[in-house]
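#onboarding

Welcome to the new folks! Below is a worked example of what a typical request in this channel looks like: someone posts a single protein sequence, and someone else replies with the predicted structure as tokens. Don't worry about understanding the tokens yet, we'll cover that in week two.

Example request:
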Amino acid sequence: YMSIGTTLWASFSFVLGVLIVFRTNQAYARYWEGATLLMQVRGEWLNAASSLVAFCSRDSARRGDVTKFQHQLVRLMSLLYCSALQQVALVSDEDTE
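Example response:
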């Protein structure tokens, strides 16, 4: 027969194990939800930039202006994504240099 102390220890260990597994599962789910949302944002911004580049003028007289606009647009979208990542990052700006 098991003593009362052994039974209590077994019960405590079981409850603690269940709680640890539950917390780990919740943290894992939150991580993947965040990662999925970040990739979705990236995809939406890529689609927006691609659409803006695709609908640029094809007039050969304005080719230089169009190229300059496209390059600036891509740089600004890159900065926008960088700014969004900095908002959700736990790293300070000094550590990212």
